[in-house]
Every structure is written in C-alpha cells, then in structure tokens.
Amino acid sequence: MIFLKLLKESFLFAYEALRQNKLRTILSLLGITIGIMTIIGVFSAVDTLRNNIQSSVEKLGSNTIYIQKWPWVGGPDFPWWKYISRPQPSLRDYDKLTERLMNAEGISYEVSVGNRTIKYKNNSIEGAQIAAASHDYYKVWKFDFESGRYFTDAESKSGRPIAIIGYSIADGLFPNQDPIGKVITVFGRKVTIIGVFTEEGEDMLGISADKTVLIPLNFAKGVIKVEDERYGPQITVKGRENISVNELESELKGTMRSIHRLSPADDDDFSLNKTTILTAQLDQLFGIIDFAGAFIGGFSILVGGFGIANI
C-alpha cells in the first residue's frame, strides 16, 4: 500500500510540474520525439539503401569470379603501384582456362566501350555502351529478352556482324517498330539486330543492359583491339551449382598462376574479384552509418530527457 501511495504521489507531482511548465514540457517532448523519429528515419533509409545495393550486388552472382587487372578495393592507402604493371587478362588466358577448368559452368571474355553513338538511318542515340563477349556470356550473366534471341555458337565463332540491343536503344532508334532484322551502324560497320533485352532500369551500382549493344567477341576483334586496357578486358567465370565460390577461386588461382608461369615466391599478377569483397565493404560502411544515426538520435533523446528532468 505504501508503494502504491508513493507511486500515486509521484505521478501527481510529475503531472502538476508538467502542467505548470507547459512550454518547457512541449519543447522537451519535441526533442525526444525528434530523436526517436531520427533514429527510425535513419534506420529505415539505411535499410532501404542496403536492400537496393544488395539486390544490385546479387546481379553480379554469388558464385561468379571476375578475373581482372585491378582488385575491388580502394581507399587513401591503396597501393596502386603494385598493380599498375600487371598485364590485362588476355585471350590466351581465356583459351587456357577454357581448356583446363573443371569446376566452371561458363567462362566469358568480355570488353566494354562506352559513350558511343549508334545510328539507324537518320536516327541516332548517344551514350550507348558497346559490349563484346565470347559465347558463354549467356551462362555467366542473367538476362531476358523482350524479343529476338541470343547468338548461336556458329555465329559467335564466325564473328557475324549481329547485335543484341538494350531496351532504351530499341525505344530510341525504333519507336513503334520491331527492331529485329534492322541494320544499325556500330564502329562504322553494318550490324543486324537479332534481339532486344528486357527493360531493367538502372540499379544502385549503375548496372543495366538498357543502353547496351552486345556484339560477338570475334566480330569485335576485327574492329578494335580487344585486349587493350582502354576497353577493360575481363574474364568472367561462373562455377557449377555444386561448387562453392571458394573452391572455384582456389582452382582459378592455381590455374592462372600456372598459365602465367609464376614461381611459388611470385605474387599473383591478376585479381580474382567476387561479390563477398563488395559486401564486406558495404557492411563496414553501413555499420558506420547506423552508428552515426543512433548517436544523433540518442543525443536528441538525451537533451529532451534533461529538459524533462529540470521541469
């Protein structure tokens, strides 16, 4: 009974204090409300951003490894001098990997040429991303077709002048028309369209096929030097379903070192990039953002709490 009496008196005392200091009460409660809403807002925004980026990263494939000159790391202390003299992934590397790898479902050699103008009669579209890839491109990347089809093996090997275009390219050059069978100009050459990718929209990492023009690698060899560093050559390797990315990475590392004839004491002269590198960096970044949001919101609540305590 004594406890209940004390509790009742405490509530009455607090209520009377709040009633007599209305302005201070309102400001204090406002501070606490802002603090709570800040925490909720920051965490909600961060979760949305994290989910969007995670969805973008998943497009790269959890069981896919990218053989490139540069690693997916950076920062002010990045030792760029260790990597600048490395060779680009070569067609020889690609051929040898195709022969030797046992755990790969698909292996694709890819290059990309950005900001090109694509023409069809009197129409043109700027900012197109021209990509050239070997035949297994369809095995290592996920995409769907709005219309048309992918290259046949014979078309890829012979380097036929054909292309698959992104939805934005098709919409810009062929409004209210069927693009299949139309002839466009790529690198000054006449190229026949055989397919159109489904519209994707640009994700948080800027990955989208909407403004892409995909041509066979063997056709590209006749118009550009595909091993040139300017075109960012890479070899994309996707592992079989029953093979973990770590097993695939181990096989790739040993095979690449053998192809490049590196001794046991030599450092790798290639990078094996995978999505876990990105997710680790993103987790670190979002950890900092979460802490900052919690600190700001907590500080607002603390200020409001002191205000109420002084009423």
Descriptive overview:
With about 300 residues, the chain is α+β, with helices and mostly antiparallel strands. The chain folds into two domains: about 90 residues; about 180 residues, no CATH class. It is about 45% helix and about 20% strand. The protein has nine helices and ten strands. Strands 1, 2, 3, 4, 5, 6, 7, 8, 9 and 10 form a ten-stranded mixed sheet that branches. Helix 2 runs antiparallel to helix 9 and helix 3 packs across helix 8. The longest helix is centred in the N-terminal third of the chain and has 38 residues. The protein is elongated. The mean pLDDT is about 85.
Helix content: 40-55%
Q: Number of DSSP helices?
A: 9
Run of helices and strands: HHEHEEHEHEHEEEHEHEH
Give the strand tally: 10
Mean pLDDT: 83
Low-confidence stretches: none
Number of domains: 2
Strand content: 15-25%
Task: Tell the overall outline.
Answer: elongated
What gap, in angstroms, lies between the N and C termini? 28 Å
- CA radius of gyration is 29 Å
Essential attributes:
44% helix, alpha+beta, 311 residues, 10 strands, ten-stranded mixed β-sheet
